[in-house]
Structure formats: C-alpha cells, structure tokens
Design goal:
The chain is α+β, with helices and mostly antiparallel strands. The chain contains 4 helices and 3 strands. About 75% of the residues lie in helices and about 10% in strands. The longest helix has about 30 residues, at about 1-35.
Length: about 140
C-alpha cells in the first residue's frame, strides 16, 4: 500500500513539473515571438454542436451530439446488464454462499485462541491504565 502511494505521489510530482515546464515554455515563447494569437498549452472551445480541444498546438474536434448519443446507448446497455446480473438467481445464490462462507471464517477467527489472547491483553492494558490514572 505504501509503495503504491509512493508511486502515485512520484507520478503526480512528475506531471506537475512537466506541466509547469510546458506552461513556462509557452509563456516565454509568447513573450519572445509575439505571435498574432498567443499559444495556449490547453484549451476547450465549445461551439453549437462541436467541441474543440487543443493540447499544445494539436487540435481535435468532436461532435457533441454523437458522443451524447453513444453515451446514452452505453448507459442503457450497462443498466440492462446490471439488471440481468442482479436478477439472476445463480448470481444471487453465489453471492449468498460467498457471504455465508466469509461469515463462517470470520466467526472461526473471532473465536480463535489468538484473538481471545489479544483481547485479554488489551483488556489488561486498559485496566492497568485506568487503575494508574485513578492513583494519580
């Protein structure tokens, strides 16, 4: 877990440094060259039925209606599949058996001698702490 956190932090720092470098380079270019229209590292321009996205000079235009239609279609397909899985008796039985098995394992673990020993040790520590605090 700690290793994943370190990797995520490292990637975040890397992306921050790169984006700051790109912004600084673009700002210096705009100051030095004075183009008729300043270059922007990233922008989104919304038109009536199109969306224009630019990233460091490369531009892509997207039809918003087509994307909305595909999104609605995929959401409907997802809802149908979720309903099919949710209403499937085999799936319900499998989930119930997994929960039952996990509950049995949990109960066995809670009733084990190791857990009882740890609970007893914690109780002793708390009792000694409380008795020490009453003496003070």
């Amino acid at each position: 877990m700690l290793r994943c956190l370190a990797i995520i932090i490292t990637i975040g720092v890397f992306l921050t440094v790169v984006s700051l470098g790109v912004n600084l380079s673009v700002a210096r270019f705009n100051q030095t060259v004075l183009p008729p229209e300043p270059i922007k590292p990233f922008y989104i321009k919304e038109q009536s039925d199109r969306l224009q996205i630019a990233l460091v000079g490369e531009t892509i235009e997207v039809n918003k209606k087509a994307i909305e239609n595909k999104l609605v279609t995929y959401l409907e397909i997802g809802r149908q599949q979720c309903t099919a899985v949710k209403d499937n008796p085999y799936f319900i039985h499998q989930v119930a058996s997994i929960f039952s098995h996990a509950r049995q394992k949990w109960d066995l673990w809670l009733n084990s001698d190791q857990v009882k020993a740890v609970n007893g040790w914690i109780k002793e520590q708390l009792d000694s702490y409380q008795s020490d605090s009453h003496k003070s």
